[in-house]
Amino acid sequence: MGTRSQQPLRCGRGRAAEIGGGGKKRARRHVTPGPRGRVTCSLPPRPAPRRRRAPCGEARPEPHETSRGGPGAAGAGPGAAMAQRGGPAVLPDNPFQVRDGPVPPPGLASGPGTGPAPGASPRRASAAAATAELLKRQEELNRKAEELDRRERELQNAALGTRLNNWPPLPSFCPVKPCFYQDIPVEIPADFQKTVSTMYYLWMASTIALFLNFLSSLAWFCVDPSSGSGFGLSILWALLYTPCSFVCWYRPMYKAFRSDSSFNFFVFFFVFFAQNVMYVLQAIGIPNWGFSGWILSLIALRKNTAVAVMMILVSLFFTAVAVLGIIMLKKIHSLYRRTGASFQKAQEEFAAGVFSNQAVRTAAANAAAGAATNAFRAP
């Protein structure tokens, strides 16, 4: 058995030797002869990497926070993680990149320090104008839909005959039942509902004024017993004008706006003009006429101050009712002229209403038959 040729070691204990072939230095190892001729090699310790010194005023990152996923690594985005691995810190062309911080509004640019994008303000103004126009059209359509629903309910109630009188609103135990049907939102067109409601409030105000006139006349009668005729007339006006004004001018006005009736318009104008004349006379307050107006208030001021103050309040009430009545008469007349009504149309409506009434036709037929019988019996 031959002996293996061994190359003597050129390094002793604690010295470095070159190991490898081809004359190339691949690694330097520390060779140490061990017991029984064995050789042990170990790599020398690698020097620690040098840290980059941070400039003055810059915070030095903690190693455990950046390398072990601490708070610094958790707060950093994917760009910081890639920067630690040697990649780019920011990916500007990546559409799926997660960006920290608030998202800029669509009218502003995404870059820092930039103002609103050109053309953003005109676009917003045009969008706001289009939205306002759409809302206006929606309101108009809703109003037309409500008008159609009202007409449909009115036709259904008229066809079924289920309308019950609801005015005056009396309790159920009262033996007197309501005499009229009144529903302004249902029966009156939307353009005239405010006018009809104002006239209804005017009628209520005139009724309250007559009641206050009765109280002031009673107080004046207690002060001056010779004014008994005025006190009696105040009772008559309160009992007479309250129902008659409702039937004679308010109901014709209500029917005129409900069915666009020229005949009812003419009746209303005639009666309401006379009612306005009475309003003016009530505000004047002629003695012994039953009205506590301005003249009677000045006379009562000489005798009793408390009664005079009460009469002055009633005079103010009468004056307000008279002014409002004149204003509403002028307004309704202007509305009447816009509807295209005429006196000839009113005559036609009156004739059609008279001849369509069954009682009138029966009376006319009986009168004609009686006249013909008398003519044949005559010698």
UniProtKB/TrEMBL annotation:
Its main location: membrane. InterPro entries: SCAMP. Residues 79-89, 117-127 have a biased composition (Low complexity). It is found in: Membrane. The chain crosses the membrane at residues 200-221, 233-251, 263-286, 306-329. Residues 128-158 form a coiled coil. Residues 1-127 are annotated as: Disordered. GO terms for cellular component: recycling endosome membrane; trans-Golgi network membrane. Keywords: Coiled coil, Membrane, Transmembrane, Transmembrane helix, Transport. Signal peptide: none annotated. Residues 69-78 have a biased composition (Gly residues). It is a multi-pass membrane protein. Belongs to the SCAMP family. This is Secretory carrier-associated membrane protein.
